[in-house]
Design goal:
The protein contains 19 helices and six strands. It has helices at residues 16-22, 25-28, 32-48, 54-72, 83-95, 108-144, 164-189, 208-215, 224-229, 232-258, 286-309, 324-345, 352-359, 366-375, 380-396, 406-410, 420-423, 426-431, 441-455; strands at residues 149-154, 157-163, 191-192, 219-220, 266-267, 349-350. The chain has a two-stranded antiparallel sheet with strand order 1-2. The chain has a two-stranded parallel sheet with strand order 3-4. β1 and β2 form a beta hairpin.
């Protein structure tokens, strides 16, 4: 292992087992871009404040750009403890002792807090873009299937007829809230910790607001101890990611169910399925199953960091090194899941005939029949009981409600007239629900138009 930046106080070499256990470069190397950008902003500020000369700053900035280009090509010396040490030592190797001046007025504690904030900020921007893409695909799918009806379910039992586009737009709304959660998280992410040093601040006259402007932060941290020991913003991101993955998992579960022969509601393209090593006829929805499983993985990452943070006294503790792997893994998992799910949604097709057949079986218009009776002056509780008995009567005779004769129905309630049959037609049931947020054709058309405007879709 290379010479330590902190080795002056130690007599003995670090045990090689501890070297391996303690090192973080194998995973925090992905912060190199953020580390270098933060270092450049810090350098420019030190020069402005007269802590570095302009000549020294110019040398440092040029060398940092060279290091960045080298690391962009994947060149890393794996013998260093972490990415911060590697960048600093690479700088000193290029320009000599002047490179050692860059660490003036900062610690690895506020440096890593800065790097992680920059990383999370970048990740939020990427994930938000992927969410918007998926929203656009859902809107396109909903528009393409305008007028298609299927059973809506509660308890996985057929409940009421709904428009497929209404069902798809439910996921649009979930993703919209995911984007809102990320936007809210960004407010707490976009705070500059640099200038907090190890935990107490710095004796140097720093212009923290300049660094914040240089790096695009909205504010500077108000308490140096909090700034170096805060990982709430990572937890916020992991929570938002967990909810996002839960939404993707719910959609995946529905597609898995809908693709079964028992439902037969959706055709999954071959390009997004796999086969069996023993059963030649099989077409397996592996993509959706993996998304379901990876949801638990992201939940685990949130729980892991909550557990790591729960007993830490102020300020920085080495436990906090364990924030990065759960974060990096969650970002990668969320991004990959959004990409594959969006591509899948752009390629699936629905079995409209089978969906319609399912709507016509299972007494899905029973609620409308109860509403019809309310319109005839019957209280809803009475209407509910009457319709329940009518369903039982129809079940015994293996008929649907619409197949009952007027005489049959009048036997349960004399207020029923011939106009009842209009209330038992599934399409009529849907079109009676045109209130805002309902599944009526006009309501869904308005919702689609609003969604298109929100995401800028045509």
């Amino acid at each position: 292992m290379s010479q330590k930046t902190w080795g002056g106080r130690f007599k003995e070499k670090t045990d090689e087992a501890l070297e391996r256990f303690n090192a973080s470069l194998r995973f925090d190397r992905r912060l190199y871009s953020q580390d270098i950008e933060g270092s450049k902003a810090h350098c420019r500020m030190l020069a402005k404040q007269g802590i570095l000369t302009k000549t020294e700053a110019s040398k440092i900035l040029r060398a940092l750009d060279e290091i960045r280009k080298e690391m962009d090509r994947g060149v890393f010396d794996e013998t260093f403890e972490d990415i911060h040490t590697l960048v600093e030592k690479s700088l000193v190797d290029r320009i000599g002792p002047v490179g050692e001046k860059l660490h003036t007025a900062r610690s690895r504690n506020d440096q890593v807090a800065l790097d992680v904030r920059l990383y999370v900020r970048d990740a939020i921007g990427r994930v938000d873009g992927l969410l918007r893409d998926m929203q656009g695909t859902l809107v396109g799918l909903a528009g393409k299937n305008s007028g298609v009806i299927l059973p809506g379910y509660t308890h996985l039992q057929r409940a009421q007829p709904v428009l497929l586009s209404h069902h798809l737009l439910a996921y649009y709304e979930m993703l919209k809230r995911d984007r809102q959660r990320l936007a809210d998280t960004l407010k707490r992410v976009n705070v500059l910790p640099l200038g907090s040093a190890a935990l107490a601040g710095s004796t140097f006259d720093l212009d923290r607001k300049m660094v914040a402007r240089e790096l695009g932060f909205d504010a500077i941290s108000e308490n140096s101890m909090d700034a170096v020991s805060d990982r709430d913003f990572v937890l916020d991101f992991l929570f938002a990611s967990s909810v996002l993955m839960m939404h993707l998992s719910r959609l995946s579960e529905e597609l898995v169910i809908w693709a079964t022969k028992e439902f037969d509601f959706v055709f999954l393209p071959d390009a997004f399925c796999t086969g069996s090593s023993i059963m030649p006829q099989k077409k397996n929805p592996d993509l959706m199953e993996l998304v379901r499983a990876k949801t638990g993985r992201v939940y685990g990452n949130l729980t892991a960091l909550l557990t790591a943070m729960k007993g830490l006294p102020l300020a920085y503790n080495k436990d906090m090194q364990e924030d990065k792997e759960p974060l990096f893994d969650s970002v990668e998992t969320v991004e990959q899941s959004l990409v594959v799910m969006t591509r899948l949604l752009g390629a699936i097709a629905f079995n409209r005939k089978r969906m319609r057949e399912a709507v016509d079986q299972g007494y899905l218009t029973a609620t409308d029949l109860a509403d019809y009776l309310v319109g005839k002056g019957v209280t809803f509780r009475q209407a509910h009981e009457i319709v329940g008995k009518m369903v039982l009567y129809a079940l015994d005779r293996k008929k649907e409600l619409i197949d009952l004769t007027l005489k049959d129905m009048k036997g349960f309630c004399g207020a029923i007239e011939k106009d009842v049959y209009a209330w038992l037609d599934p399409l009529s049931c849907i079109d009676r629900r045109n209130l805002p947020g309902g599944t009526g054709s006009a309501s869904v058309k308005r919702a689609l138009s609003k969604a298109r405007k929100e995401i800028g879709a045509k």
